[in-house]
Each structure stands twice: as structure tokens, then as C-alpha cells.
Amino acid sequence: MAPALLLDFDGTLCASLDALRAAYHGFLAGHGRTGSDREFDRLNGPPLAIIARLLARRHGLTEPPEILLGRYRALARRAQDGARPAAGAGRLLAAARGRYAVAVVTSADGPTVAAWLARHALAVDLVVGGGETTAGKPDPAPYRLALARLGADAATSLAVEDSVQGARSALGAGVATAYLGRVLPAGLAGHPLIRGPVDGLDAVIPLL
Fold first, then answer.
1. Are 48 and 107 in contact (CB under 8 A)?
2. Tens-digit pLDDT profile for residues 30-76
3. CA 20 to 30 Å from 127, out of 8, 46, 97, 189?
């Protein structure tokens, strides 16, 4: 079985986190509510449908769930469309080419992510998008699906994540995980499969 490099999208391969943060605040402001950066950080990882449902419950939004989800999804797509690849994205994919099967494992919409990758000439073997499994991050199901589709071995693969929820998803699937950030969150410290923290995608290359 081949090893795989499994990459999160928002905040990892795509430098979209600031734009998505603004979209989150804009979504709540549009309903007369006020968000917080702390809440946004806690919601970094799960699929948009879950995020929209949680925001509706926490902030008392009464519109139909499909309307709220559609509005949030449109804001998120606009944020992603305007984002650039994260520094080192091309170099990391080039370093993995021929040695690893490469997949993007994301809670974002799969076709939207695939189109963004094509626009920026970033080639991967597979995109596993939000909604393709019955449970999203932090459940390990998205990473297990990516490994199965690639025919890859979890024990020799590497995931790259920028959120606790995403890292728990990869670790739960038995994949060593490089955590992007300056400080390793307490909830991940000490896990035998955690790598890092790593400060950017260029710092992932020596881990391959």
C-alpha cells in the first residue's frame, strides 16, 4: 500500500482563514448578532452544515436551516475564491510528487475546492469534500475515506492540519499529523502520532 500526504484545505493549503473569519462575522452581523474569534476558532474544522446548525442554535437564528446554510456557504465560497495558496504549497506538493499519493481532506465543498486547485495549478490525486461521509471532522471518517480511495496505508501516511478538530480526525484514523501553528494545543500534546508544531508548509517537507 502506498503512503499518502493528506492535506486540509482552509488555513492549510489555502490561505483563506482570515477571509473565512470575516465571512463568519459577516454572517452573524447580517442577522443582528455578534460573533467572537474564539467561537470561530472552535468551529474551524466541521462541515458547513454543522457550523450553520450550531450558529443557529447558539445565536437564536430562526430561519429554515437550508436558508441559513445557503447563505453561509455563499459567503464561505466567496472567501475561498479570493484566497491564495498558502506559502510553500507548491513546494510541498512538488516534494511529495512520485513518493506519496496526495489528497485534500476538507469540510469545504469538494467541487469548489477542486476548481480552486485547478485555477492555481495545484495538482492532487483526490479531493474528499464535506458531506461525503456521514460524520465530518473531528470524526475520523473523512480521513478513512481518503485512505480507502487512495489505497493508502495509514501507518506510512502524513496529514497536515491547522485545527484541533481536523488533527483529531486524522489522528483518529491512525495517521501521523503535522500541526500547523506556533504552539501545540494542550488537547494534542503528547499524542504519539502528532508532529510539530510546524511553522508553515515548507517545514512539513522534511517530515516526508
1. yes
2. 999 999 999 998 888 788 888 899 999 999 999 999 999 999 989 98
3. 189
Short-list 147, 113, 148, CA closest to 127: 113
Write down the pLDDT at residue 44: 81
- Reading across the β-sheet that carries 101-105, which strands appear in turn? 126-128, 101-105, 4-7, 158-161, 176-180, 194-198
Q: How far apart are CA 160 and CA 198, in angstroms?
A: 10
Strands (E) located in 90-201? 101-105, 126-128, 158-161, 176-180, 194-198
Pair 137, 198 in one domain: yes
Q: Supply the pLDDT for residue 160.
A: 98
Question: Who contacts 170 (Cβ-Cβ below 8 Å, separation ≥6)?
Answer: 6, 105, 140, 143, 159, 161, 177
Query: Do residues 166 and 199 share a domain?
Result: yes
Q: What is the mean pLDDT of the chain?
A: 94
Q: Which domain holds residue 201?
A: 4-15+85-207
pLDDT for 206 equals: 97
For residue 124 the three cell numbers come to: 492532487
Q: Which residues contact 66 (CB under 8 A, 6 or more apart)?
A: none
- What's phi and psi for 198, nearest 5 deg? -115, 140
Model-level pTM? 0.90
Which of 152, 104, 100, 154 lies closest to 132, judged by CA? 104
